[in-house]
Design goal:
The protein is an all-alpha fold. Helix content is about 65%, strand content about 0%. It starts with a helix and ends with a helix.
């Protein structure tokens, strides 16, 4: 496994843990007042959603991504049935937050739908943002990579634009792991590889905003979970801070809202591009699952 592929995974997890402190706090001034510059793992300010979590933990997005990493490492590939089993087991007695996509998917499973048909109609970006483990295990086989990323996303978020966003991210990551800069890769994918005007428009919005202040841009796009807000915001962060992973993830959480999903995508894209030296070691030390993640990654190398 390439070093940048492992950083892609670690950075995506670190981004989720960093976001926990201000996750789903929509008043950015409250985040700034409480934390100053949120540049370290903190207990969650939004106790309504993450009352059982503490500094260094993951949100429910990161918890699902860790299950996905365990699944692909165990099988040596992405297997939808295995992931479906392990994902459902996570939520049996889970003491974290259940979002609507999770609740609807669990109901669909309970009603006898298989993992190809279990996905909710949620437009939340999170389903596409957790693909780093799939890219890690399939990064030498693009066809398998794209198929797996679409399938894992649709299992919980079976909505056209979210599944398309997962394919977009997977295609971009493929190029980045081959050595192409993320901004150039994003343009290439929407111009030459995907005939999807909706995704192309969101990417264009993000790229066009790269010279503007992140706080203002994300407030303008919208801070919430929906793909039409989160994807252009993610593209903005990647293009504005293409050579500075640390600043990208800090500015992401300072902007508020669903910073966890945005951060996971930004983390994997810039981690894949910049490599281990760009990821602050202190974040890995503060993250509570670092040892487990390292063990899983080592088992695949």
């Amino acid at each position: 496994m390439g070093a940048n592929a492992t950083t892609m995974v670690r950075a995506s997890f670190a981004a989720d843990a960093l976001a926990l402190g201000g996750h789903w706090v929509y008043n950015a001034s409250v985040i700034a007042k409480k934390f100053g510059r949120l540049d370290s793992m903190q207990d969650p300010l939004g106790k309504t959603y993450h009352a059982t979590k503490r500094a260094g933990d993951f949100t429910h997005y990161g918890d699902q991504t860790l299950v996905l990493l365990e699944s692909v490492i165990h099988d040596g590939r992405f297997d939808l049935a295995t992931f479906a089993r392990d994902w459902q087991a996570l939520f049996d007695g889970y003491d974290g937050y259940f979002d609507h996509a999770t609740k609807d998917t669990l109901i669909n499973f309970k009603n006898g739908k298989g993992p190809e048909k279990s996905g909710s109609e949620s437009t939340d970006f999170a389903g596409a943002a957790r693909i780093a483990p799939v890219v890690f295990i399939h990064h030498v086989d693009r066809d398998a990579l794209l198929t797996a990323c679409r399938a894992q996303t649709a299992m919980t978020h079976n909505q056209r634009d979210v599944v398309a966003a997962a394919e977009f991210l997977a295609r971009v990551l493929w190029h980045v792991l081959q050595g192409q800069a993320p901004t150039a890769a994003m343009s290439q994918v929407v111009n030459d590889e995907m005939e999807n005007p909706t995704i192309a428009e969101w990417v264009s919005q993000g790229l066009d905003s790269s010279s503007e202040t992140t706080l203002d841009v994300i407030a303008d796009f919208g801070q919430a979970c929906a793909i039409d807000m989160a994807l252009p915001a993610t593209v903005h962060l990647v293009s504005r801070y293409e050579d500075d992973l640390e600043t990208a993830l800090i500015e992401n959480v300072m902007a508020g809202g669903d910073s966890a999903a945005r951060g996971m995508a930004v983390g994997m894209l810039l981690g894949a591009w910049l490599g281990a030296d760009a990821l602050p070691q202190v974040w890995l030390e503060q993250m509570n699952q670092t040892n487990k993640i390292n063990e899983l990654i080592s088992a695949a190398i």
